[in-house]
Amino acid sequence: MAGTGRLHALDGVRGAAALVVVLYHASLIAQPFADDGTARLIWETATETPLKLGFAGTEAVQVFFVLSGLVITLPALRDGFSWPGYAVSRLVRLYLPVWAAILLAVLLVVVLPRDEAAVTADAWIVNANIVFPDWQLALREATLTPASYDTVNTLWSLRWELLFSVLLPAYVAIALLVRRWARSAAALCVLAMVVGRVFDEAPFDLDALVYLPTFFLGCLIAVRLDDIREWAGARRRPVFWAAATAASALVLIAAWWTRPFVPRSTPLGDALWGLAGAGAAGLILVAIGSPLASRALSSPPLRWLGEISFSLYLVHAPLLATLAFAWGDAHWMAVAAVGVPASLALAWAFFRVVERPAHRAARAAGSRAAAVFSRSSGDGRDASPAPTRA
């Protein structure tokens, strides 16, 4: 049975991806000041070369999506899995930290009022963050149903996480059904993501084609995990995994390092952006299969980052925005120098005070829901059949 042990390297992947998102948002605060001269050259070097890996925020989110597809599917493949218990536990685990993060973001604006004149007009700092407390907006965003978010900017991705969580039974069933043809199914997922990027223009909104197949790539890895481990075990040469890592990383950010040759606004540029999910899946496979990558990603610092990654993802944008409004985004270097480590500290506190108790509450609520459903089924077990390996 797959997933009998925790894949610690995936904690490291999650932590690294969360840190990349933080650096990405710090870079967006600096972006308006990279308009010409040396600053422009530095910006292009950082974003239009493989160095973009350190600032690839949107692509890092797709790494999260593949991870979610993998780690949420694995328990569903085990005997005795309770779907009612899962549903209740998952909702509690998602919503409690989200609500706390929204409350924190609004309180930051209440305590430290924001002056729009202190930052660059029509920049990310204004367009993707609240300038004044808006409780009505906060309540609407707390449902995780809007398409865009300003109170906590990163919640746009949790909307897709929520939808995937609701659709998990269908994802698992389809993944098991196509398990024998996983490579072909993965290719179709990548094709769908490319189509979604290329044709995602008004009046069409094809974001679902970009993001939902990314979760399915993780599901496919889950249902073939034992086969993947066996395949990887026969390939122990470091040069193979180094090449796989480089290829996956370059595919992840293909739309960026190719920009000197392929403009972003062209169909080819959009198609390259659509490959990001494939690169994300490739990096997850490397984390699972490469002994060297697994050891590196299982290091204590990265595992600690992985542990607080969800908290870091939720709290860093409001904190960075607070500093940028307080000091002015022209002082972006100070915002980044203080904001990044402060985000790590705040995330650790948020994890201890909010996320860890939310995990306990989610497990307890899930166990109660599973027990209630088991009693109502009349046979002492969860009446809904748990998926098994095909």
UniProtKB/TrEMBL annotation:
Keyword Acyltransferase included in the entry's annotation: yes
Residue intervals of the Acyltransferase domain: 8-351
Membrane spanning stretches: 12-33, 53-74, 94-112, 158-178, 185-202, 208-226, 238-259, 271-292, 304-326, 332-351
Top-level taxon of origin: Bacteria
GO terms assigned for molecular function: acyltransferase activity
The keyword Transmembrane helix is assigned to this record: yes
Assigned keywords, A-Z: Acyltransferase, Membrane, Transferase, Transmembrane, Transmembrane helix
PANTHER family for the chain: ACETYLTRANSFERASE, BLR2367 PROTEIN
Name of the protein in question: Acyltransferase
Organism expressing this protein natively: Microbacterium gilvum
